[in-house]
Amino acid sequence: MVARKTVCLRRLGLDRKGELQAGRFFANAKVTADGIIAGWSERTGAACADRHVLAIQDCSEVKFPTSAQRRRGLGPVGKGNAYGVLVHAMIAVDAARGSCLGLVGGTVWSRAGVNPVPHERRPLGERESVRWIDTAQQARPVLQSARMVTVVADREADMYPLWGSVPGEDFHLLIRARKDRVLVGGGALFAAAANFAMAGRRRIELPARDPGRAKRAAVVELRYGEVVIVRPQHEHDHSLPSSVRLRLLEVREIDPPEDAEAVHWRLLTTHAIGDAAAAWEIVRWYQLRWVIEQMFRAMKSQGLQLEDSQLSTAERLVKLAAVATRAACVDIQLTQGRDGSDPMAASHVFSEAEIDTLAALCPTLEGSTERQRNPHPPRSLAWAAWSIARLGGWNCYYKPPGPITFRRGMEHFCQVHRGRLLDITTQQDMRIP
């Protein structure tokens, strides 16, 4: 999928035989979405050793074309008449460098229908929102080699059970507040920031999102302070602590453009904040949440085009989405790894056999000038990305290689690697007496 930027079985299989094999894979009852998701993190833990890791989680709707006669067993998504699957994923991102270290965990599912019981009347275990807690807890064994973990999420994850059960030593939370919570001693959360002293102003970059919001810069003010939130009265789980001590950061844009929505973030975190520099660093960590949105974009219309799949059943589409999530993550890792700012090993993305092929290819891709030689340490991800970019037509000059170049390079590399493996197999067969 990374090589061909598609989930189309016909293109993935290369020929009729390959297409049928791919179809049988997703139709096989022994192949499960849970099994695929369990493999998401097989290389992530090693990449996270001794780092401060941002465990960023988010959910994305994948809408598939349907009709009244052909629902394919898919459940509703969104607020309109749309059907599809939901992908909840967590990725590991290096807090210092912003590089994607791989997938941590998550879940992919299709709704059975609309639950008639109101959300607040259902036990937590029967709500979809429990995935925010489950995924955070899944991160503990995967990221146990990390020096520190900060779980980062947007407003949907602002749940008292998350605040009351997940944090631990060197395991923190950073979540954008959604609810105006009651504070110990009286008062409300959103009004508390008005009493905080301004810590400073800074210009921050806002990435482009959907066509409705272009990339732009914003000048924001920062205030921060300590708050103690109270367990809500409607919270059924009384084993949770009666209160939780947090730090609140308010980021508010000054003089926004008339045609743009003003930035106003209220961020809650379990991290202690010693000074303004530490507060701005936490704001920067929250901005890195954009990496997971890039991954979802690479999975859908701006990459693998998952939403165009014509697989016939919801069960197969759920499996396909699980595989596509992994492929999209690799795509992000390759694009980020091109400059060598993070000394990640190539083995976090490529197999040993693929690395051997890259090692054989690299000398043939280098030119006569210093700029046309691979400058990165052998067997590093940057070293591998340099070779892939060269295969994709990059000439080592002008701007850095982008996703299209890497797509071409990966497709070329897959063909070379496949041919090399066939050649090795043939030579081995010829040596058999």
Q: Could you please describe the fold and organization of this structure?
A:
- By secondary structure, the chain is of the alpha+beta class.
- The chain folds into two domains: 329 residues, Transposase Inhibitor Protein From Tn5, Chain A, domain 1, CATH 3.90.350.10; 87 residues, no CATH class.
- 34% of the residues lie in helices and 21% in strands.
- It has 13 helices and ten strands.
- Strands 1, 2, 3, 4, 5, 6, 7, 8, 9 and 10 form a ten-stranded mixed beta sheet that branches.
- Helix 11 crosses helix 13.
- The mean pLDDT is 89.
Q: In terms of topology, how is this protein built?
A:
Blueprint: H1 9-13, H2 16-27, H3 33-38, H4 44-47, E1 52-64, E2 75-77, E3 82-94, E4 100-109, H5 130-142, E5 148-153, H6 160-165, E6 171-176, H7 189-192, E7 198-206, E8 216-230, E9 243-253, E10 264-269, H8 276-287, H9 290-299, H10 314-336, H11 352-365, H12 381-391, H13 403-431
Parallel strand pairs: 1-5, 5-6
Antiparallel strand pairs: 1-3, 2-3, 3-4, 6-10, 7-8, 8-9, 9-10
